[in-house]
């Protein structure tokens, strides 16, 4: 198993327990592993949301946060977040840690997410170079419009981790969204 395929297994306190292939971590009920979620805002205060590619094993074509992934074995969280911003969106920007949360979400009988997820926000107005292997569509959304959209009964499909983290951001961290500002 290549290090790029191995995810870091953790306990509820984020202590490393070993590693396991990405495929095995997501089979059945899933195995708890380390992950991160990035929310990127532009100078107008809009959040970049993406629609996951149809080839994704879990939640294909669902709308989600700007970027998310897993650190590799031997890779720091900072290096992992920088790597994925470049790989998925073709951008670089400073990130601010907000919180960690643990969740389990079952997609179907064959797969699930079971993650201890670190959530970061960043601000960037640079041009995007979207990786079409990962992302089929994207858009910038005002936070209040996203909040209203997520709570509608006929809402578009959003990934479970994005809905959980956005609810917490809206409830506990709305101040970090701030007013639009120059970058």
Account of the protein in words:
The chain is of the alpha+beta class. Helix content is 23%, strand content 36%. The chain has helices spanning 22-25, 77-89, 143-151, 160-172, 174-177, and strands at 6-10, 16-21, 33-41, 47-52, 63-64, 67-69, 95-108, 111-123, 135-141. It has a four-stranded mixed sheet, with helices on both faces. Strands 5-4-9 form a three-stranded antiparallel sheet. A hairpin with a 2-residue loop joins strand 7 (95-108) and strand 8.
Fold topology:
Layout: E1 6-10, E2 16-21, H1 22-25, E3 33-41, E4 47-52, E5 63-64, E6 67-69, H2 77-89, E7 95-108, E8 111-123, E9 135-141, H3 143-151, H4 160-172, H5 174-177
Number of helices: 5
How many strands in all? Answer: 9
CATH structural fold name: Nucleoside Triphosphate Pyrophosphohydrolase
Largest sheet: 4 strands, mixed
Strand order of the largest sheet: 6-3-8-7
Poorly predicted segments: none
Radius of gyration: 16 Å
What oligomeric arrangement do these chains adopt? single chain
The structural domain count equals 1
Q: Compute the average pLDDT.
A: 93
- Secondary-structure-based class equals alpha+beta
The percent range for helix content is: 10-25%
Distance between the termini: 41 Å
Quickly name the level 1 CATH class. Answer: Alpha Beta
Secondary-structure element sequence?
EEHEEEEHEEEHHH
CATH architecture: Alpha-Beta Complex
């Amino acid at each position: 198993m290549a290090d790029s395929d191995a995810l870091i297994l953790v306990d509820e306190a984020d202590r490393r327990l070993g590693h396991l292939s990405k495929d095995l971590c997501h089979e059945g009920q899933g195995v708890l592993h380390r992950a991160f979620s990035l929310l990127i805002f532009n100078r107008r205060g809009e959040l970049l949301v993406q629609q996951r590619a149809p080839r994704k094993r879990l939640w294909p074509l669902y709308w989600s946060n700007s970027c998310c992934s897993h650190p590799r074995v031997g890779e720091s969280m900072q290096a992992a977040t920088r790597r994925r911003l470049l790989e998925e969106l073709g951008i670089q920007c400073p990130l601010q840690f907000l919180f960690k949360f643990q969740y389990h979400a079952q997609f179907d009988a064959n797969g699930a997410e079971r993650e201890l997820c670190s959530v970061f926000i960043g601000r960037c107005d640079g041009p995007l170079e979207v990786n079409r292997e990962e992302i089929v569509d994207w858009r910038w959304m005002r936070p209040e419009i996203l909040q209203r959209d997520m709570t509608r009964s006929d809402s578009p499909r959003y990934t479970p981790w994005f809905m959980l983290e956005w609810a917490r951001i809206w409830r506990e961290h709305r101040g970090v969204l701030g007013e639009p500002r120059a970058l």
